[in-house]
Amino acid sequence: MRYGDLLAVDNISFSARAGQVTAVLGPNGAGKTSTIEVCEGIRKASSGQVRVLGLDPVKDRRILAKKMGVMLQDGGIYPSARAIDVVRQYCGLYTSGRDKIVAPDELLDLVGLSERRLSPWRRLSGGEKQRLSLAMALAAQPQIIFLDEPTSGVDVNGRTTIRQIIRRLADQGATIILATHELDEAEKMCDRVVIFDKGKVLVEGGLDDVRRARRVVRLRTVRPLDLTDMPDNLAGWLIEDAPCDYSIEDAPQGLIAALAVWLSERGIDVIELRTGMASLEDTFKKLTGGAP
After folding, report:
1. Which of 53, 144, 232, 284 is the most buried (most CB within 10 A)?
2. Is 48:219 a contact under the CB 8 Å cutoff?
3. Sign (positive or negative) of CA dihedral 109, 114, 116, 119
4. What CATH class has 2-211?
5. Which CATH number does the domain 214-288 belong to among 3.30.750, 3.30.420, 2.60.120, 3.30.70?
6. Residue 123 neighbours by CB distance under 10 Å
7. pTM recorded for the entire structure
8. What are the 10-residue block averages of pLDDT along the chain, 292 residues in total?
């Protein structure tokens, strides 16, 4: 994908599966938005082949549009339009050739906006606007759904509602493509992860597989450690997360045993020592150099 001389997306390949939530992650400018817009048919790829539900997003756009839902991050709604009227209009776009049409009030109830059905767009909170955008994306009863920052600006209860809806849609067989900067939310929702940076895919796979690729040891001591007093072959591996809390990523064989001996010789008691998978955020930062 090119913008003039800028190569925004460079020879990438990834897949998203039916019945799963695939999180597309990356720093600002990584190329994920351009990639998703190509999949949605909004932009045309400079080269290569893209297939969504077996269809070409550009050549088969009219067919694909009837099977696809898109939730934009913001905008696109007339300020005085009432929630029920917006959803009713969207539902009306998908009446042709269908035996069952989704009811607008059912969609508003699904996203928890029944009591706000008569409220105009401009009177809705940021979180309510996000939930209304989700209802609009579901009007097509889509087989594949693209969600851009679905929980941005949404309160705790609203986030839970959105996560439950997304999970239910995936369980019913829909393909969910989720683009977000909120890595903790992505970790709660996704089955698969695709991490972009500088126009390339750095990693793709199941959530646990991606996290398991990086092993992390968590260490908590009764008092802070003086890393300057520690041998370089030990201190160089410790990351101080907080006073008395440390982590070690991808520790080589024998390091933990050597560290335990060093702590014991100095009478420093260990409160906690455990090994586990890195969080999605830790993995993301490691791969992208800590970029936001």
Report:
1. 284
2. no
3. positive
4. alpha beta
5. 3.30.70
6. 14
7. 0.79
8. 76 92 91 89 88 94 92 82 94 74 90 95 91 92 93 88 93 94 92 93 91 83 92 91 90 88 93 85 84 50
